[in-house]
Specification:
The chain is of the alpha+beta class. It is 12% helix and 29% strand. The chain has one domain (5-13, 23-206). The chain has four helices and 14 strands. The protein is globular and about 40 Å long.
């Protein structure tokens, strides 16, 4: 698996970063589907849902519906692609996530996008992460919802957000945020290769 984004952090050390201002605001744009409303946030040129999808179908983590409110449900690519969305909204592409990360300060070098400083923590929620919670100053609110591949995995230290994009060989691309005790890895080449595997779902629209 090719890692394309890497942020190392040690909780006792705070690195100084660039002061580039990012256009971030809680959005008045509504997103309602299946009678349920979801929060949204404007980040740069995009508006994102700020909660994981929790609609019909999907699996609750550990098959426990009590997890749905915090984490949303886990969906296959086929299930996510079949969700009927309001006009203008879409399941994100790889390019959509690249735009998000660039807006958050990611730089490209030798084909790799690298988030420096504490930018990854800005995307991560203030709760749910077992080693160090994020600051969520972006409002994106990525929760550690885990994933499903033959079993439920990694609740508390990983999220895997589905995209509609494919590698040339037909394998699926997702955005993975993986936290260990000493680092956060952000990977846009993370693959959930099997159609029965499940990740979390967000939606995006252009402003």
């Amino acid at each position: 698996m090719k890692r394309v984004l890497l942020l190392l952090f040690i909780p006792a050390i705070i690195l100084t970063g660039c002061s580039k201002k990012t256009d971030i605001s809680q959005s008045a744009i509504s997103f309602t589907i299946g009678g349920k409303s979801y929060g949204t946030v404007k980040i740069g040129s995009q508006t994102w849902t700020s909660e994981n999808y929790n609609g019909s179908g999907g699996l609750s983590y550990n098959n426990d519906a009590a997890n749905d409110a915090a984490y949303g449900k886990l969906y296959t690519y086929s299930e996510a692609a079949a969700i009927k969305l309001p006009s203008g909204w879409r399941l994100p592409t790889r390019s959509d996530f690249e735009t998000l990360l660039i807006t958050m300060g990611a730089a490209q070098s030798n084909g790799y996008y690298t988030l420096s400083d504490i930018s990854a923590l800005k995307l991560m929620s203030k709760t749910t992460w077992i080693f160090a919670n994020g600051t969520n100053t972006s409002g994106f609110n990525a929760v550690a919802s885990g994933f499903w591949s033959n079993s439920f995995r990694n609740l508390g230290n990983m999220t895997n957000l589905l995209t509609s994009s494919l590698f040339p060989n037909g394998e699926r691309i997702s955005l993975e945020i993986l936290q260990t005790q000493y680092q956060v890895l952000i990977d846009l080449n993370a693959v959930i290769p099997n159609e029965t595997d499940r990740g979390s779902v967000r939606f995006v629209r252009d402003n």
